[in-house]
Amino acid sequence: MIKVGIVGGTGYTGVELLRLLTRHPQVELKAITSRKEAGMPVADMFPNLRGWLKLAFSTPEEAGLENCDVVFFATPNGVAMQQTRALLDAGVKVIDLAADFRIKDIAVWEQWYKMEHACPDLVAEAVYGLPEINRASIRGARLIANPGCYPTAVQLGFLPLLEAGAVDTSFLVADAKSGVSGGGRKPETHILFAEAADNFKAYAVGGHRHWPEIKQGLEIFAGKPVGFTFVPHLTPLIRGIHATLYAKVSADIDLQSLFEQRYADEAFVDVMPAGAHPETRSVRGANICRIAVHRPQGGDTVVVLSVIDNLVKGAAGQAVQNMNILFDLPEDTALADVGMLP
Which part of the chain is the Semialdehyde dehydrogenase NAD-binding domain (predicted)? Predict the structure, then answer.
């Protein structure tokens, strides 16, 4: 059995990890930490876990994390980098669901996250946990940087086009929409029901922290610098991301076949038939990215539609997928769920 610890178990990604891991046949949950809620049974906070989980929250110091095989950090940015070195030195593998190890350029990370990085040497070692491009490296990693939610949807949508050199890389646009759970479980005015319901708005147009993460990945796929614009929006959904991606076609290529062939062996990417329009509700609760590719009026613009559940393929599900790869388990272990519809 894989002995698992979770640091920061009181947020939405934390409870989603618990939902998935309690059903994992090879996992023994050893600790879920929260300084504020130490001693409280986890199921008292999250009643969906009643009958599935008997653990109580504990402080990180009392949790015995150094005795785990793998520790997930479902914490705010800046927490994992303070504790990861000690865990790695104890032989524990680490999967960070925050952004501490995603961006390789430390100066860029510090610019966007407004803090000094505590362990820049570990950033160089960390493997970016997007299995569709880094599966082999993930398998041998000690430290995995789980991708962000927007970056997962956007990168998977652009990946085949950039690998094939099929589009003009100087002008790539991602118009993306997210449900309110992407903002976390903390109380903030903009995600109150009366603020977010029956409303739709763009935000962070001048610069979102996921922009450098996405741009880093796109430039790796393309093998050169890219021009990239990212505009996020808040929608009155609980779960879901819908990314509409635009690029100019630069090669004579069958785009539908390109996507189908690139993802033919990927269990968690579903390329829909030509002309399809994927919906966020079709992936709710499932660790899958659904993609459709369009070429409106047969012109020189390609439009890719990419949808995920931000808490599953965009966070906790992808983290469990990475754990399965790390421990040489079938990737779909505990992840073979059908999306919840309606």
Answer: 3-141
User: What CA–CA distance (Å, rounded) separates 190 from 17?
Assistant: 25
**Residue 96 and residue 203 share a domain:** no
Length of the chain, please?
A: 342
**Same-domain pairing of 16 and 155:** no
Catalytic site includes residue 149: yes
Range of the domain at 118: 2-125
Count CB atoms within 10 A of the CB of residue 191: 17
6, 68 contact by CB (below 8 A): no
Read off the pTM. Answer: 0.97
Residues ≥6 apart with Cβ < 8 Å to 188: none
Per-residue pLDDT of 241-267, as tens digits, reads 999 999 999 988 999 999 999 999 999
Q: Write down the catalytic residue from 68, 119, 149, 289.
A: 149
Residues 97 and 219 in one domain: no
Task: Report d(CA 339, CA 324) in Å as an integer.
Answer: 20
Please answer whether residues 21 and 193 qualify as being in contact, where contact means their C-beta atoms are separated by less than 8 angstroms: no
Asked if residue 295 belongs to a domain, the reply is yes
Residue in 167, 170, 149 with CA at minimum distance from that of residue 158: 167
Q: Is 317 within the bounds of a domain?
A: no
